[in-house]
């Protein structure tokens, strides 16, 4: 069995090792366990440092830093969102993250987070639906069948038992891709010709589109009583998916209001429009779903605590799985004050193994 390296060597999880780790654990088990860790951290929400993500916006997209700490561990994620990347054969979203020891400031983990973000987003969506969707919900419409869609489907099935999918995307090839990738996973899948057809009879509606613009993926007449809406795609200023009238009919639940009011669907509403924080519902401090006819909306934009939970979870799996590399990231001089001496010793070592003089 592998052990976690000493504090001077940082475990690094590459994309390849992340995939192997997820498959070793099992996708469904990974999602369920990750959801459990996310829920644990939401239940201690008040212990965390919280700030809206630090964003650098351009006409091409956005680059963001998402930091948080619980006083013992510090974590952050670097993530981008560039919708045009798909046309260039690149990912819309890429990410990496760091988890550190608050006590000494040393990083304890460096990890890819492109795959991990998709998993934590899906797990968070399903955790929210556990509190907000009807308990008998078994069918879900997924509008937008890109990189996130299969993860959302797997999480809702693993955590809530949702096994009927109604897929729609403006690109039919995306829906066929999603259907193909989910074959043999116990789903009943219908590819629909329109968003209107997709939402017909669906208990849960997940919107997860990528365009960076105000959009109307759902109109008011498409959402019936008792529906739970999982709005994932709207996650930056100027990018929304739902008609404003839907918001006015819904009870709205958010991660962190200061961030969601800037980036979420509620950016369309006055700044004092009532929203409920999801952690309060989980903690029993606020109501979630109260009736079977209530329309609930999880206005999901993603928050740093979810990434913190994901990094904390994968780090807990390293010793048992061994899917990491030892990264020589931290200088470790024999005498902490003699950093320059490390250079001299390295120079001496290089000269002893090579006759060529090192030129400054």
From TrEMBL:
Xref: Pfam families: OCD_Mu_crystall
EC top class, as a word: lyase
EC number, UniProt record: 4.3.1.12
Molecular-function GO terms, alphabetical: ornithine cyclodeaminase activity
Species of origin: Agrobacterium bohemicum
Keyword entries, A-Z: Lyase, NAD
Protein name, as recorded: Ornithine cyclodeaminase
PANTHER family according to UniProt: KETIMINE REDUCTASE MU-CRYSTALLIN
Family statement: Belongs to the ornithine cyclodeaminase/mu-crystallin family.
Keyword Cytoplasm carried by entry: no
Database matches in InterPro entries: NAD(P)-bd_dom_sf, ODC_Mu_crystall, ODC_N
Lineage start: Bacteria, Pseudomonadati, Pseudomonadota, Alphaproteobacteria, Hyphomicrobiales
């Amino acid at each position: 069995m592998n052990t976690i390296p000493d504090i001077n060597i940082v475990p690094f999880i590459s994309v390849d090792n992340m995939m192997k780790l997820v498959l070793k654990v099992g996708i469904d088990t990974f999602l369920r366990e990750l959801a459990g860790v996310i829920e644990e951290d939401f239940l201690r929400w008040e212990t965390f440092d919280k700030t809206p993500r630090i964003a650098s916006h351009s006409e091409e997209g956005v680059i963001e830093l998402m930091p948080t700490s619980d006083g013992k561990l510090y974590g952050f994620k670097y993530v981008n969102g560039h919708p045009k990347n798909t046309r260039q054969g690149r990912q819309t979203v890429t990410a990496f993250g760091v988890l550190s020891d608050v006590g000494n400031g040393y990083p304890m983990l460096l990890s890819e987070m492109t795959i991990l973000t998709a998993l934590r987003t899906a797990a968070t969506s399903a955790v929210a639906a556990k509190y907000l969707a009807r308990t008998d919900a078994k069918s879900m419409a997924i509008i937008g069948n890109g990189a996130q869609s299969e993860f959302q489907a797997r999480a809702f099935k693993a955590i809530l038992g949702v096994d009927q999918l109604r897929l729609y995307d403006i690109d039919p090839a995306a829906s066929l891709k999603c259907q193909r990738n989910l074959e043999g996973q116990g789903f009943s899948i219908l590819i629909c010709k329109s968003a209107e057809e997709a939402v017909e009879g669906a208990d849960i509606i997940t919107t997860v589109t990528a365009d960076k613009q105000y959009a109307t993926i759902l109109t008011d007449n498409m959402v019936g009583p008792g529906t739970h809406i999982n709005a994932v795609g709207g996650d930056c200023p100027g990018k929304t998916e739902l008609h404003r009238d839907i918001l006015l009919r819904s009870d709205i639940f958010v991660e962190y209001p200061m961030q969601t009011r800037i980036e979420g669907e509620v950016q369309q509403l006055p700044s004092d429009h009532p929203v409920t924080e999801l952690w309060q519902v989980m903690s029993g401090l606020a109501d979630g779903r109260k009736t079977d006819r209530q329309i609930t909306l999880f206005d999901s934009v993603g928050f740093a605590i979810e990434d913190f939970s994901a990094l904390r979870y994968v780090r807990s799996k390293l010793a048992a799985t061994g899917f990491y590399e030892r990264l020589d990231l931290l200088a470790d001089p024999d005498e902490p004050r003699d950093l320059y001496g490390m250079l001299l010793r390295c120079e001496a070592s290089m000269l002893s193994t090579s006759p060529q003089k090192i030129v400054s």
